[in-house]
Amino acid sequence: MATVIQSGAVEPSSPRFAAGPAYRPAPPAAPRMEPPAGPVTELDPARIRRLAVVEARRLDDRTQGSAAMFERAKAVMTGGVPSSYQARKPWPIYLDRGAGQHVWDVDGTRYLDVHNAFGSMVQGHANPIIAEAVARRARLGTHFAAPTEDSIAVAEQLERRFGLPQWRFLNSGSEATMDAIRLARALTGRDTILKIFGSYHGHHDYVMVSIGVSVYEGTDRNDYPSIPYGAGIPDVVTQMTIPVPFNDADALERRIERLVAEGRLPACLIMEAALMNCGVILPEPGYLERVREITRRHGIVWIVDEVKTGLTIAAGGATEYFGIRPDMICLAKALGGGLPAAAIGATYEVMEPVRDGRVVMVGTYNGNPLVMAAARANLELVLTPAAYAHLGVLNDRILGGVQGVIDAYGIGAYPVGIRSKGVIAFSRTKVVDYESFKNAQDEALIGLTWLWNANRGIFAAPGRDEEWTLSIAMTDADVDHYVNTFGELVHALTR
Ligand SMILES: Cc1ncc(COP(=O)(O)O)c(C=O)c1O
Fold first, then answer.
1. Cβ of 305 less than 6 Å from ligand 1
2. Which of 379, 390, 415, 493 has CA atoms 20 to 30 A from the CA of 156?
């Protein structure tokens, strides 16, 4: 069977399935969100490497416009990119435009976009309702550093969705987590903070700790080290951030008890309710409830970072989806419909030091009118109950399709997802925390998957930190394209 390529996408040319039976779409199966129980089909590392070489060459050949742009860019923009997370070897794919579920690169190739700007564009690209709201606002003045009515409407929407009565606006997820932690420190008068080992919360010093690192065998889960993520972070700041494993309330409790004994009771625990930067890792039953109980008992502020989950997995994010009651939440990404919006939501008591001026929560661009107009249109008119229902149907279809392929070929993998988000974990053991996530990483297979997708008209986030975010512009056919492309890869690896 020929690869399903979206019309307008560049068709990969060389014969991929020269020998053996052609891939036939596997029937979907109920996603189990667990690795296969029995023996699995081994994948040959040499074949993975061979396929990766072919796919890399094919991608290089047809992204010569990006190659030329990279030459120009790196002369003036460090590494040729605005953010190091956009870098790629040998060059990044420079994009030209997006519409609905598609993006086009500068060579004119159209891709189904499941990267969706690291999970920001759940609305689809150039959403006409948001574009119109932004255009209207642009004609009325783009910035005053004074509040506009739209910011009130956005706060009202968030209050309804997340059940937290007080809101402030910022410009990025990093600003939101930074200000949330400062507020927690002010409330408690304590310096030490807790985070989840391996979890990303932005690029400020408080949270650039113990991520992107290896966990070596024998490392004590109850005593994970505080490791700076890159140079330039003062050790004194790094050592104030204590990492604990996800999905392990006992380890959290033990670490808090030790910190208490050292006279360092933490101000807050910042965490995602479901990890979205280590693939997708769901909380085990009862874990979040115990976290709430433990933090409350110790007077530790529980900050749930909903930068990724908020507005993508439910109207009220992880707060609604898991039925939790955090003290503070952070939003960004999907809030602004592609513009740089972020927010902190909290109870009255938690926000009191901001209201009375003890905590200085400021920023020239906070509540920028253009951003607020986009966020208002997004919340009131785009991310409606029908939109979430549509995302749910699509995600069930993609998870079921991927599970069907895995079952048909018997490989050691499983899909995990919630609503618009998902990942195919190439793991024979269940991924429950950063340690099991890292141990399951097969870098060569992950690299091949990205290339394979890119050469078949699918633009995904690099690596396995995150894989897909669906958008409301997508259709069943888009999801089937994704599943079939995965099926063809598995076929090529196992035939
Ligand atoms: C969970 C989480 N928190 C915070 C951030 C930081 O957001 P930003 O990149 O907008 O600063 C990210 C970014 O990926 C994130 O995934």
1. yes
2. 390
